[in-house]
Amino acid sequence: MTRRLGVRINIPYLQGAYLAFNAIPDAYFLGDGPSCIFAKAEHIHGRHDLFSTLLSCDSAHRVQHTGVNVFNMAGDTEGQIAAALRRLAATPGCGALFLGAMPMCAIAGTDYERVLREALPRRSLPAFLMPRRSAISGDWLDGYAGVLEALASGMDLSGAKPKRNSVALVGYFMDRNEGEHWGNLRELERMLRAVGLDPVSIWLSGRPYEDLRQVRRAEAILSLPHGGQAARILARRLGVRLIEAAPPFGLQASRRFMELLGREFGREKRAQEFISAELDAVAPRLQWTVPHAFLGRRFAFAGDPHYAVCFAELIEELGGEVSGLLVMGGRHHLSPAQRQALEARPGTLFEPLPHELAGPWSGGAAECDLVVGNGLAFREARLGPPCLEFGFPSEFTHFLRDEPFLGFQGALAFLSRAANEVVKGMVLGR
Length: 430
Hints:
Helix content: 40-55%
CATH class of the largest domain: Alpha Beta
Structural class: alpha/beta
Number of helices: 18
Radius of gyration: 22 Å
Distance between the termini: 41 Å
Number of domains: 3
Shape: globular
Largest sheet: 5 strands, parallel
């Protein structure tokens, strides 16, 4: 098969890694490379995330670079890297340090593991080396997962002692420190506690490094797809059960999530009671909205592949039609069954080239009652309203209070936002 060349509509590896660092408030990162390493943090700090701490007005930034470029990378740069590592390690508030490299530096063969070991010989500070392989060919989801994988592989888990009925949730995709994620965390914890489980640690959750180390107390690892490899590593290192789950985005997805918890932990009755109570609370509120805003309406989605799968199910469950899916992520992020299900839809494109949007996808999306997607999609596809900004990057929509989109209550909140935009478009004739 001929490989299509060009710059695909996807998000780079480093941006995903930065989203992970952004969700660990005491994590610092040193990137071996030029100043663009620093500039990429500006795509998140203050634009996508109003509460980001990646950058600082006193220049004590949590993202730093070595300054290595095409003109000096062939020289002896190891001393520069070591000095920068020691400087960051001495920064007040630094709880964990990560070292990574831009592709042009990664292929030069620098022994980063040795440099890290020699620069911080006593390892009084937790320090981690980012996986080198994915930095060259991976995308943003690989970058986020890479940070979690580095943590899971190198974290000091000494003194591990599983606590009865405790679980660690690994692979929550926290792309910013704002209300939709605060709300999601609250909902996830509420769902776990509803079946008698204690969420001792959530990766990632906007909480510091030591909170992540509480994974040592878990008697089971509950894995979400944005951190699957990290979850497998942790389960193996801790010798505890691994349970794989899909994101509870949507009513059916939330039901399956709770049913999985009930089966795996022998709490079927409690899980079913919770499901029934939640549906009894949510269903009446959708009674008017579904026939007016969703039944027979057309929708398109652009963004994270894992949420694309859930979005399609949610809309079709309510009688809507999904006429376009622009998937910003490689096919390898989804299972074969998920890929086949999405590719069977005529309007599905995986990380397309820009000119490919001029075809059926763009035309179909333009005729939709609502396009749900991130800011990159709207810029590339040049789509007008009605639209709903969702996912990274979101530069025009921010949440100052808890407004989840996961779980039953999150589904209701998301559908409320979507219905408002659909009806607004109908009334205004957009």
